[in-house]
Amino acid sequence: MKKIIFYLTFIIVTSTIFIACSLPDDDPVTCEEMIAELQQLKITIEEYAATSTCSEEFECQYIAFGSKPCGGPWEYLIYTTSIDTEQLIIMVNEYNELENNYNEICGAISDCSVPIEPTGFTCEDNKCIPIF
């Protein structure tokens, strides 16, 4: 039941952003509205990834998360194979694309630093701890 509610929430949020970005110019969505939707979607994705647990059965993994205006991700999201990883990847890819659209439409800027990718993981208290 939690998965169904989670997926429905994700679909509603992404649909709202997609529709908002597609509205005609006479009723434009503000950059503030776009960022608010992105922030809510980010929380949803991070909460879903946080439900994953590591053990001998489940492998720790990571994915580039976010879209910096000058290119590349903001961070790497850590998760395990204990959740529906295909669904998580779809959600993250959609989020990254929506954030890239926000960057272009709203003229976002950022530093051009590059986050460090994990080189491995340890598992402590059923949570993946990245090694850099």
UniProtKB/TrEMBL annotation:
Name assigned to this protein: DUF4377 domain-containing protein
Biological classification of the source: Bacteria, Pseudomonadati, Bacteroidota, Flavobacteriia, Flavobacteriales
Domain of life: Bacteria
